[in-house]
Design goal:
By secondary structure, the chain is mostly helical. It is built from 1 helix and no strands.
Length: 32
């Protein structure tokens, strides 16, 4: 879902403007 923000870590919150941006940075969608 592009346009969604992805919360990767509860201690170090990292947000991406799109899933593609998160994947490009080496992150995956949070399972929570």
């Amino acid at each position: 879902m592009s346009g969604e923000n992805y919360h990767i870590s509860s201690s170090n919150a990292v947000y991406f403007p799109s899933e593609a941006a998160a994947r490009a940075a080496g992150y995956r969608k949070s399972l929570r």
